[in-house]
Amino acid sequence: MEKVSVIKIGGNVIDDPKALKKFLKDFSSIKGKKVLIHGGGKLATRMAEQLGIEQQMNAGRRITDEETLKIVTMVYAGYINKNIVAQLQAIDCKSIGICGADANLIKAHKRKNAAVDYGYVGDVDNVKTKQLKKLIDAHDAIVIAPITHDGKGQLLNTNADTIAQETAQALSKSYKVQLVYCFEKPGVLLDAADDKSCIKKMNPSYFNFLVKEGAIYDGMLPKLQNAFHALEKGVDKVRIGQSNALKSLLKGQSGTTIKL
Amino acid sequence: MEKVSVIKIGGNVIDDPKALKKFLKDFSSIKGKKVLIHGGGKLATRMAEQLGIEQQMNAGRRITDEETLKIVTMVYAGYINKNIVAQLQAIDCKSIGICGADANLIKAHKRKNAAVDYGYVGDVDNVKTKQLKKLIDAHDAIVIAPITHDGKGQLLNTNADTIAQETAQALSKSYKVQLVYCFEKPGVLLDAADDKSCIKKMNPSYFNFLVKEGAIYDGMLPKLQNAFHALEKGVDKVRIGQSNALKSLLKGQSGTTIKL
Q: Of A255, B87, B138, B145, which has the fewest beta carbons less than 10 angstroms from its beta carbon?
């Protein structure tokens, strides 16, 4: 089975041109097919501030109103996506930049919640594996912005971690997939305050043990649950670590490797 | 030879949601493969104003400075491109939205001009026919935003009419191509002030005759010269007319049809 790496990066690397350049160089040197999913970064927030668009909140949660959707579509699917693609072409990584509306790739629905209206936020229904496979076969790399559509003409703002997970799961039917989450920490930490307490390997029984011990800190719990869900759906392994250490992360020499 | 329609729309249809919806419905009903090239519209200008970015002018020409490039990339390749794609999916026209950086499709260079520095404006070097063909074969329609790249990581703002022409020419090696320019007038007019004076058919000798007579008004002359250039490069026919009359325009029942 051919290998595919699905890698998600967040704001910490997107907002730092030097870090992004180094990351893209490492990314382009990965052997085999690759998918890069990028989150937003600070530009969208800065643009909204400059345009005087107030962040709408409801019960402590951020709302994607019409103006915010416009901005995230522009910034994520336009500015960030196209700049990443142009930089990849410059280092001979033939890539194509898309969002979930393109090629009808990722269909979602507006989040239904009786208590809170999150606005134009999409929960993923499905990833069209056939279309994705065609794109992967035709290009060195696919760069995906976290915007989906509802199939009725409406774009939706969608969590980039979720898009990475759903994409990896969809691809695992046809490829041996590793799903890589790059973030600001060196991996899953035993002690959230100590960067040196990185857990090298994790399997379900160790995860359950740590959960019982109360050793998994808040923000990490859903990330790990999603990781195990992806593995159960056929993803070969999940790695969590730092974008500036991508090469060693992919070799299992840094970060956390999660397997069943 | 399979037929491909390359259609360019401008701000007058992009800025009008109802007109755009009608246009996209007509566009999706065109038989055979299709490429849609969209210009900008007023949103980019409005965004620049709201962000307090002053339009830089030099010797009467608009300059694409760094901030303006950021805005046009966001608006053209992000907001407009993705909204068009989402609307096309909704009417079952399986499309993919890209810019010239994607798939390394359209390489350009920063315009060289000793007298005026136009900023980040790109003149097209080449269109990668092989990549374009792959995309065309894999999708019902390709939607192209007028942003190109220089192959060194730099995005460039590029004239949408030129992109349409270059794309049509590149495709004419493999397909029977009609190139369609939609604009606000019903076609090439004998009298610029009289919408009823539309010229139905034009060939090189009639064009030369009209030029000698001084009957071609200023803005139309380069458009027509480009049209004849495209025909000489292998494009089958060029049509010029109104976006709201796309169906009749494609049948030659409205607008101007230009052939060798």
A: B138
Please provide the DSSP assignment of A39-88 as one string.
Answer: ---HHHHHHHHHTTPPPEEETTEEEB-HHHHHHHIIIIIIIIHHHHHHHH
Q: Which of A52, A82, A153 sits opposite B86 (nearest CB)?
A: A153
CA-based nearest distance B108→chain A, Å: 12
- What are the pLDDT digits (tens) for A85-122? 999 999 999 999 999 999 999 999 999 876 788 899 99
Smallest Cβ–Cβ distance between B86 and the set A83, A87, A101 belongs to: A101
> Under an 8 A CB cutoff, do A77 and B82 touch?
yes
Q: How far is CA B4 from CA A111, A153, B38, B129, B228, in A?
A: 39, 25, 17, 13, 18
Using one digit for the tens of pLDDT, what is the confidence trace for B192-211?
Answer: 889 999 999 999 999 999 99
Q: Does residue B107 carry a pLDDT above 90? A: yes
Contact (CB, 8 A) for A85 and A97:
yes
pLDDT in tens, A247-256: 999 999 999 9
Find chain A residues with C-beta within 8 A of B73's C-beta: 78-79, 82-83
Q: Which of A50, A82, A139 sits opposite B99 (nearest CB)?
A: A82
Q: Mind telling me how many Å the CA of A153 is from chain B's nearest CA? A: 4
Give SS3 for A232. Answer: helix
Q: In the predicted model, is pLDDT for residue A135 greater than 90?
A: yes
Given 3.20.20.70, 3.10.105.10, 3.40.718.10, 3.40.1160.10, which CATH number is that of A3-258? 3.40.1160.10
